[in-house]
Specification:
The complex is a heterodimer of chains A (113) and B (115). With 113 residues, chain A is an all-beta fold. In chain A, 0% of the residues lie in helices and 59% in strands. Chain A starts with a strand and ends with a strand. Chain B is mostly beta strands and 115 residues long. Chain B is 0% helix and 49% strand. In chain B, the strands form 2 sheets. In chain B, strands 2, 4, 5, 6, 9, 10 and 11 form a 7-stranded mixed beta sheet that branches. A 4-stranded antiparallel beta sheet of chain B has the order 1-3-8-7, with no helix packed on it. The termini of chain B are far apart. The chains are: A mainly beta (113), B mainly beta (115). At the A-B interface, strand 4, strand 5 and strand 10 of A face strand 4, strand 5 and strand 10 of B.
Chain lengths: 113, 115
């Protein structure tokens, strides 16, 4: 059975800390891995990763994929209270699996002042 | 604002009633997806359309659920004879499928509460 597992499920840090969120997966017909940020509304797209070892970076956020070990990490440096959200990892499967996104349960991040 | 809109944003209904939700995707996006999200869980795939064709349905989509995308633009999701277990956030996403990778962009969701 396809699965996407995120850890930790929740995390509380102080402003300025660096956090690492984990996502491991076991799916058939892997196509890409995506990270989304969800506040009290729609998930907003952060990164799409398709190749191993190539870091994607956007400001204080960065992510990398390891297709051999089947995991990805999302790093946030110098955290701010506005980073408080649920971070969702999703794996996109290929055409044979309908292109649907298979999501993990998310990591709930709270950044305290 | 990603450009995907959903209506209504909230719906409260009594068990046994029918409800219909609407999703307007980003203009020119040819793929449209429906997901359901319950508290503490990630979104779960329900169904997707490429243009007006419904190409995939999850086994989560019971016979009481039906989705349409009649002209390949907006889509509707209807739930008949609602049950309390249908209470969830229903999310719509759209993407532009090209040869390269296509990213799904989500709407704000419709939160359904079945009493």
């Amino acid at each position: 059975e396809d699965k996407v597992v995120q850890s930790p499920l929740s995390l509380v840090v102080h402003e300025g800390d660096t956090v690492t969120l984990n996502c491991s997966y076991e799916v058939t017909n892997f196509r890409s891995l995506l990270w989304y940020k969800q506040e009290k509304k729609a998930p907003t797209f952060l990164f799409m990763l398709t190749s191993s070892g190539i870091e994607k970076k956007s400001g204080r956020l960065s992510s990398i994929l390891d297709k051999k070990e089947l995991f990805s990490i999302l790093n946030i440096t110098a955290t701010q209270t506005g980073d408080s959200a649920i971070y969702l990892c999703a794996v996109e499967q290929s055409e044979n699996s309908g292109y649907a996104l298979n999501f993990g349960k998310g990591t709930s991040l709270l950044v305290t002042p | 604002d990603t450009g995907v809109s959903q209506d209504p944003r909230h719906k409260i209904t009594k068990r046994g009633q029918n409800v219909t939700f609407r999703c307007d995707p980003i203009s020119e996006h040819n793929r449209l997806y429906w997901y359901r999200q319950t508290l503490g869980q990630g979104p779960e795939f329900l169904t997707y359309f490429q243009n007006e064709a419904q190409l995939e349905k999850s086994r989560l989509l019971s016979d009481r659920f039906s989705a349409e995308r009649p002209k390949g633009s907006f889509s509707t999701l209807e739930i008949q004879r609602t049950e309390q277990g249908d209470s969830a956030m229903y999310l719509c996403a759209s993407s532009l499928a090209l040869v390269a990778r296509d990213t799904q962009y989500f709407g704000p969701g419709t939160r359904l509460t079945v009493l």
